[in-house]
């Protein structure tokens, strides 16, 4: 069994690791802080989703551990490349696995946890679709992590302008929803990344992640937090945006009810 003390020890290791990073300036520090906060919020999300979905306490603790380590590669990624864009740097999930191995991060729980399940779940959170395996528990925890991660990215978009780094730019007063993005919502599919060019495109792309969320508990959390409405309010209005807004709200409420 995984205890709360086990989890606290890993949290302290995480703090020790992030506190040991050589961060050269405030710009870098802001981005490191962003991912530290993200990590803790994903832990909170995954606990809520797992508990609301009826998982036993041991699985809730395991889900929290997976959330704790899911983005541990982000810190070295940004310090080395100055971006969170994997296409311009490295696969941050694969880098995270290497960091975990180098730090022997999970050694203190040897014999208590399935390290391969953790590894596969971390890798799966950074793929367009979950890699299906015969192991149903890998699929379960991968889905939990993906949902918890996406929920916090929605939160982040309500308070900061971030794509692959924190943005500081004037937003346009008008915005025309690109045809391909509108088409994706009309057909109930996630927006392909190649269609996103502007910040508003990325806002809609990330809202379309709702089509890749898995648990009614996730949608209940999103509705309670009202993230979608806040994100949509930051995009210049149009008839197409109103249509997308109605689609989003209807879909989330339908999924929240199972």
Provide an overview of this structure:
With 258 residues, this protein is an all-alpha fold. It folds into two domains: 4-155, Hypothetical protein af1432 (Orthogonal Bundle), CATH 1.10.3210.10; 169-256, no CATH class. It has helices spanning 4-19, 26-52, 57-69, 73-81, 92-103, 115-124, 136-159, 179-186, 199-207, 216-225, 227-233, 239-256. The protein starts with a helix and ends with a helix.
Produce a short descriptive summary.
The chain is mainly alpha-helical and 258 residues long. The protein has helices spanning 4-19, 26-52, 57-69, 73-81, 92-103, 115-124, 136-159, 179-186, 199-207, 216-225, 227-233, 239-256. It is globular and about 55 Å long.
- The unreliable regions are none
Proportion of residues in helical segments? 55-70%
How much of the polypeptide forms β-strand, as a percent range? under 5%
Number of helices: 12
Structural domain tally: 2
How many extended strands? 0
Question: Rg, please?
Answer: 18 Å
Any idea what the CATH superfamily of the largest domain is called? Hypothetical protein af1432
CATH architecture of the largest domain: Orthogonal Bundle
Give the CATH class of the largest domain: Mainly Alpha
CATH topology of the largest domain: Hypothetical protein af1432
Structural class: mainly alpha
**Can you summarize the main beta sheet?**
none
Helix-strand string = HHHHHHHHHHHH
Mean pLDDT across all amino acids: 94
Shape: globular
Distance between the termini: 30 Å
Topology:
Elements: H1 4-19, H2 26-52, H3 57-69, H4 73-81, H5 92-103, H6 115-124, H7 136-159, H8 179-186, H9 199-207, H10 216-225, H11 227-233, H12 239-256
Helix pairs in contact: 1-3, 2-3, 2-4, 2-7, 3-6, 4-5, 5-6, 6-7, 7-10, 7-11, 10-12
